[in-house]
Specification:
This protein is α+β, with helices and mostly antiparallel strands and 500 residues long. It folds into four domains: 47 residues, no CATH class; 221 residues, Beta Barrel (Thrombin, subunit H), CATH 2.40.10; 94 residues, PDZ domain (Pdz3 Domain, Roll), CATH 2.30.42; 87 residues, Pdz3 Domain. Strand 19 and strand 20 form a beta hairpin. The longest helix is centred in the N-terminal third of the chain and has 24 residues. It is flat and about 75 Å long.
Length: 500
């Protein structure tokens, strides 16, 4: 028994010595349950005596991904350099809400129907509105980009910088199709952002958003690009950048930066079932915004190209039916007889594969390319017809829409809050009016008084209005209270306005 115990003690001591040597010579060991395993990141080769004789050779290491960097990206330098160029935008205005539950539902031949049609809007009461958003400075002399929905229907727009300075902003123009607005503040030597190229942004790249979610000014969030060229319902002319950067109400109009500190998009929308962020946010590519900005600044409105065709996606079954090797392109399902596509020879059943050498993978790719083409310019279409490719030359038409941008300054009576235009010859003939100005938009005092688009301003304080210059003179001579004679439908009414 004594000899057996001594041998057992000797064996135990040898095992203990072996493990001690392994720890000293072979580096650290990791404990997993009741077993001893070599650490995967050990830098010292394991002791030969401890390695099993039948151990398989180690698998070759996977090649490193080009451009991969250890650790998370650092955003602080971008925020410090370009954060001061991100502004907070607050708006005030008036909206009309129906008093007493709205207008009654009457038949067209009911005599009261005509009364409510002519005077019904006066039963609506103006309600003050306030809103918050974001924007960013693109030129040192005060040019700012934001979303159109941030400043739409605003009577007053205030821009606040990170240094706490505040400025009243002028809306140079807005474009509801792309949801872009251009503002101007009277300042010099302002900090600006650097604009980048969205085409160089890849899915999976890190991006950074700065804005004022729920009024928390200059908040910074980060994420990655989840997808590109997303087409959203009612937004077919914008190839959105999808990200998972946290964006909430108040972030609208703020910049989306890449890791070079360049703005590649304008945060515009989120997809949410709750109204808050759920991991899906969408930004307008900055090249779309730059195009809108250039047109608004130079000519006060935005024009877009149009082919005059209806298109749909090509799925596998349609590709097989038309003899395509793979489903891609935009299938023409309808052609406007007077449109640019019809004049170029496009027919239902054609599949548009390229537009000016740009590949069309799906039907959502085509509308933004055509829209960003100047009306009247020439373009080349590569189409699939009768089992083979061919090229068509097309002169791009102009999109007709009531959502194109307009600058209020040239035609607005700013003191009244009215955007006006002269009557066309057809309107003069049909109405029997010799003068007057048609209301295109009403904000401020005019909106609060109940004036609405379509009304015709005939006189100011009893003096007949024939053109814009005469209207400006009459307003200049008037005091804080004036009365406008307005024709609405078949009726003429005086509407008092308080300009105080």
């Amino acid at each position: 028994m004594v000899q057996s115990t001594t041998r057992s003690g000797l064996a135990f001591s040898q095992k203990l010595l072996a493990l001690t040597l392994a720890a000293v010579l072979g580096g650290a060991v990791a404990v997993m349950g009741d077993r001893f395993l070599p650490r995967a990141d050990a830098s010292v080769e394991p002791v030969t005596a401890l390695a099993p004789a039948t151990a398989a050779p180690p698998a070759p290491a996977a090649p490193p991904i080009a451009g991969a960097r250890a650790g998370l990206p650092q955003f602080g330098d971008i925020v410090a350099r370009y954060g001061p160029a991100v502004v907070n935008i607050s708006v005030t205005g008036m909206t009309k809400t129906a008093a007493g539950g709205g207008l009654p539902d009457l038949d067209d031949d009911d005599p009261l129907s005509q009364f409510f049609r002519h005077f019904g809007p006066r039963l609506q009461r103006p309600t003050p509105i306030r809103g918050l958003g974001s924007g960013f400075i693109v030129s040192a002399d005060g040019l700012i980009l934001t979303n159109a929905h941030v400043v739409a229907d605003a009577d007053e727009v205030t821009v606040k910088l990170t240094d706490k300075r505040e400025f009243k902003a002028k809306v140079l123009g807005l474009d509801k199709v792309s949801d872009i607005a251009v503002l101007r503040i009277q300042a010099k030597d302002l900090p600006t952002v650097k604009l980048g190229n969205p085409d160089s942004t890849r899915v999976g790249d890190w991006v950074l958003a700065i804005g004022s979610p729920f009024g928390f000014e200059n908040s910074v969030t980060a994420g990655i690009v989840s997808a590109k060229s997303r087409s959203l319902p009612d937004d077919g002319y914008v190839p959105f950048i999808q990200t998972d950067a946290a964006v909430n109400p108040g972030n609208s109009g703020g910049p989306l930066f890449n890791m070079n500190g360049e703005v590649v998009g304008i945060n515009s929308q989120i997809y949410s079932r709750s109204g808050g962020f759920q991991g899906l946010s969408f930004a307008i590519p900055i090249d779309v915004a730059r195009n809108v900005q250039a047109q608004i600044v130079s000519k006060g409105k935005v024009t877009r190209g149009q082919l005059g065709v209806a298109i749909q996606d090509v799925n596998q079954s349609l590709a097989q039916s038309f003899g395509l090797k793979s489903p891609h392109g935009a299938l023409v399902s309808g052609v406007d007889d007077q449109g640019a596509g019809a004049k170029a020879g496009l027919k239902p059943g054609d599949i548009i594969l390229k537009f000016n050498e740009r590949q069309i993978d799906g039907s959502a790719d085509l509308p933004p390319l055509v829209a960003n083409t100047a009306p009247g310019s020439s373009a080349t279409l590569r189409i699939w017809r009768n089992g083979k490719e061919q090229d068509l030359n097309v002169r791009v038409g102009e999109m007709k829409t009531d959502q194109t941008a307009s600058a209020a300054a040239p035609t607005a009576a700013g003191k009244l809050g009215l955007s006006l235009r002269p009557l066309s010859p057809q309107e003069r003939n049909s109405s029997g009016l010799n003068g007057g100005l048609v209301v295109q938009d009403a904000t401020g005092p005019a909106a609060r008084a109940g004036i609405e688009p379509g009304d015709v301003v005939l006189a100011v304080n009893g003096a007949t209005v024939k053109d814009m210059s005469q209207l400006r003179q009459l307003i200049g001579k008037a005091g804080e209270h004036i009365a406008l004679l307005v024709q609405r439908g078949e009726a003429q009414i005086f509407i008092p306005l308080d300009l105080g």
